[in-house]
Amino acid sequence: MSVQENAVLKEPRAGSWRRLMTGREEQVFLILTLIIGAVVGLIVVAFILLTERFGARLYPAGGAAGRRVLIPTIGSLGMGYLLFRFFPDARGTCCKRCARRRRHWMRLQPLRDAEAKTRASD
Fold first, then answer.
1. Do 56 and 6 have their domain in common?
2. What distance in Å separates the CA atoms of residue 71 and residue 63, rounded to the nearest whole number?
3. Structural domain that includes position 44
4. How many Å apart are CA 2 and CA 5, to the nearest integer?
5. What CA–CA distance (Å, rounded) separates 6 from 81?
6. Does residue 80 belong to any structural domain of this protein?
């Protein structure tokens, strides 16, 4: 084996990626994009199948009609208890903009109530 062949065999993996990328970046990125897209697509399909099967078990075709009301109610009450027990400081604002709107509305609400009472008494 020649010295040059021996050097190629001992070359680290980063060097092989560098050789692959030189002059063909668009092709490598296209292949990576296709692989990532295929994996994400498979994950989405798996999620849809999982949720459909879970829903079919929760609400079977011949099940009682009250079950469609009872299961979400029990789940909501259970989650409410867990939220109250483990996250007592949790608030329901999604962002600062929504919080500003809510504070603004809360400041205006007493004025609106007073105006409504004045108009009702007239």
1. yes
2. 12
3. 1-63
4. 5
5. 67
6. no
**Assessment of whether the complete model's pTM goes beyond 0.70:** no
Residue 62 three-state SS: coil
Last residue of a domain, one of 63, 79, 111: 63
On whether the CB atoms of residues 58 and 71 are closer than 8 A, the answer is yes
On whether both 59 and 1 belong to a single domain, the answer is yes
Q: Centre a 10 Å sphere on the Cβ of residue 104 and count the other Cβ atoms it contains.
A: 10
pLDDT of residue 23: 75
31-62 burial by CB neighbour count: b if 16+ within 10 A, else e?
eeeeeeeeeeeeeeeeeeeeeeeeeeeeeeee
99 and 55 in a common domain: no
pLDDT per residue over 78-98, tens digit each?
999 999 899 887 776 666 666
